[in-house]
Amino acid sequence: MVFILGIFVYFYKLDKIPSGFYIDEALPGYNAYSILKTGKDEYGKFFPIAFRFYGSYNPPLYTYLTIPSIALFGLNIYAVRFPSVLFGLLSALVFYLMLKKSELVKNKLTLLLGFLLFLISPWNLLYSRVGYEVSLGLLLFSIGVLGMRLGLTKRSWFIIGLLASSLSTYAAYTERFLAPLVIAAYLLIYRRIFFDKSRRGHTVSALVLTLFTQIPNLYLMTTPAFFPKAEESFISLVIAQSVNFNKMIPFWTAFLVNFIKEFISHYLAYFSPRSLFFLPDPDLQRSIPELSVLYFWMVIPYFYGIYWLYKNRSRKYAKFLTVILLLAPIPASLTKDPFSTHRALPLLFPMMLVIAHGLDDLVDKLSRVMRICIITSLILVSLLSLWRSYFVLLANERAVYWGYGVESLATEIKKNPEKYFVIDQSRIKPPYIQLAFFLKYSPQEFQKLRPDVVKNYYSNLQFDNHYTFANIETRSINWETDIYKEQILVGDSLSISGNQAKEHFLTNIFEIKDPLGYTVFVGYETNPREKCRPIKLKDYRCNILN
Amino acid sequence: MAYLFLIFSNLTSYWLWKIVLTDWLLGLFIILTTLLLFIEVNDLPPALKGGFSLRRMTYKSSNHPRVEARGFLEIFYKKEYKFPISLSKFFIIFILVCVFLQTKGSTKVSLTDISNDDRRLIDMRLKEYPPIYIKIGQKKVWLPIAHWFEERKESIAFFRLSKNFSEVIDPNLYFFANHPRERVGIKEIEKFSFMLLPVFIYGALKISEKKDKWLWIISFAVPLAATSVIGNYNSLGPVSLYPFFVVTLTRGLTEAFFKLKSKKLSQQNLLVSALLIIYFLTLIH
């Protein structure tokens, strides 16, 4: 029953909510399509070990796993989001298994409740219903954690745990740094078990096998593609702060103090009830309006769960859970963002376990009637909050942040194949890949656009967002020259004002609005003859018309 | 030693200096409340009993068992004097006074009044909901869910209460002046050095092990509830929570000190020196 409810919530209007199709979804989607058709990515690289995309060099697993879905459903939004939904649902199943195998849950009801809460947690739902690789990262990380937990007693699970953790480094950035940390901490804590004479050989063999799976990453480490997001860390900020204190204390001392302070403040934010239960992610594209990553009422079982961990600190399971909980937000805490929910997604797994154990302890104290009343009310409140924030507010208010309107723009472009479109991207993320996606542009043709990239694929960090393909050009509008050519200028309401349109004799030919009625794209056809006629200039820009 | 740690926690708190320098009467109440909570909460570890404390000096001066157990306040009373009111009740009165003084110094924000901008947002959101009805026989009963969520006073009050609550419960507010999620338009102040954060957590876990910890819970719950209602719009911050933080810190410091005492001398020196250097560097910072 619980799983069926989960399936319904996860698949309901999957291609419609979030409204729009973001560039980070279009990139794996189109590249999977390109691999499916040609065996090469958008730049013509044969099965890359990291996808260059727009210079981000994303781990490749999600893109590869999207290929069957695109082969099955075609190149559309549903096909790109489908694998992610599947991974989100499977993560909940792994969570259920982990909770069950802890053997510390007193009530069967809590097992089901924990499973349901994980399924409907806004954090998991948001990232499972979009075509992002982080959901796959969470699934593999969770399997890794479960495997390691069970691997304390069963050798086969130990290998599964290590391999899943190793694979997770090919799924998402966070896991690339988190998985080695977790494995190292795990082996260190349980060194007596794993390096005992009876298990030493097995442990070493499993580690060698794991290392073998890391060969692509080890190769990548020798290229700039391994760490392309270095500028997202707060180090530059800390250096700037430390320079200011240079006169009072030595630079390195100031740097150390500033670094520790900055890191702890970010790290603590991942455990702060305000961030976890009340405030959404500050990034509007990665958050749900009026809803945090977990439900507000969970703050009580959260505190109780931490107390439960402390009470049971001598148990192997509690110790293991504490280590995972403490390690999970470390990679995310090293970045500038105050509470980056997509980078900290692996934290959801240990955090929900803590909450489930806290809930179990609390439920145990209640009478049967009270238990049913309270749990039913909490589930109802959670589902209503989710419906309001995700299915109503997010669908309408966040459409513009999710690339709403690009699909309609592609339809307009398709309707006018003889006309040339200049798409202004001065205030939006480069829409080239979304357009290629919706136009189903031939991958063979697309690969010809940047022929040089493939020569030094893993060290070509510079991304040029000026694209010209089909009857499209994506760049900023050049008001000096663009109005003297016959074409359609496309921008948002700020790109082309009414006065500009009047001044340059532009004709409005389409307007695309978001669900709230605000203009996201407006298309104006230029009229160079009319523009040149009244001024009667012998301008070189007008000469080309004659 | 525990008293020394209490003095240390108070003197090194940027928050207390700010409170005292702004409003000495409030500062005085805060210090007294802290002292009362400290006496109530602090079960001194056995090793401390031989150390210096006012409790030893005044131990035999009262017949009141509860006061005898806590000891400290007796210094103010003569021999044979029966304490008229228990220390815990005293504490509750003091904490309520602190809450009152905090309320006086806060900018009051209504839980239900809506500004023009709120009205605009509500109007926009009312249009976003799909029409919802239930069918009873042949009759459709329309449910005004959009109105319930967005417009009803109860909903607005609930959302504001949870916002206020979340602001006060955030540990970053006390150790990092709300960094990295500072509130817009509010000048945040740093209250305690971030170096004391692990000690605070340790103290909280240690106190939570106690059976008789209800007063400690009250010292957190009452100011938390009050600040959730009045809002955290006070230039001095949620001052009524000061006793809770300082007492928990002191407990953490005391426990950590005795944990350290069982380690080797070289380890002790190394740890203490490292912590002190970083601590004073942060003070300079």
Structure, described:
Chain A has 546 residues and is mostly helical. Chain A contains 26 helices and 6 strands. Chain A has helices spanning 2-11, 23-38, 61-73, 77-101, 108-119, 122-128, 134-150, 155-168, 173-189, 191-194, 197-213, 215-220, 235-244, 251-269, 273-278, 299-311, 316-327, 330-333, 348-364, 368-397, 406-415, 432-438, 443-447, 498-503, 528-535, 540-543, and strands spanning 421-424, 467-469, 472-475, 488-491, 507-513, 519-525. Chain A has a 6-stranded mixed sheet, with helices on one face. In chain A, helix 2 (23-38) crosses helix 4 (77-101), helix 8 (155-168) packs antiparallel against helix 9 (173-189) and helix 17 crosses helix 19. The longest helix of chain A is centred in the C-terminal third of the chain and has 30 residues, at 368-397. Chain A is globular, with a radius of gyration of 26 Å. Chain B is mainly alpha-helical and 285 residues long. Chain B has one domain (2-107, 171-284). Chain B contains 14 helices and 2 strands; from the N terminus they run H-H-H-H-H-H-H-E-E-H-H-H-H-H-H-H. Chain B has helices at 2-11, 14-22, 24-41, 54-58, 65-70, 87-104, 116-126, 145-150, 153-169, 171-175, 197-209, 214-230, 242-261, 265-284; strands spanning 132-136, 139-143. In chain B, helix 3 crosses helix 13 and helix 9 packs across helix 12 (214-230). The two termini of chain B are 28 Å apart. Residues 44-84 of chain B have low confidence and may be disordered. The interface between A and B is medium-sized, with 38 and 30 residues. Chain B: Keywords: Membrane, Transmembrane, Transmembrane helix. Chain B: This is Glycosyltransferase RgtA/B/C/D-like domain-containing protein. Chain B: The chain crosses the membrane at residues 21-39, 83-101, 214-233, 265-284. Chain B: It comes from Candidatus Woesebacteria bacterium RIFCSPHIGHO2_02_FULL_39_13.
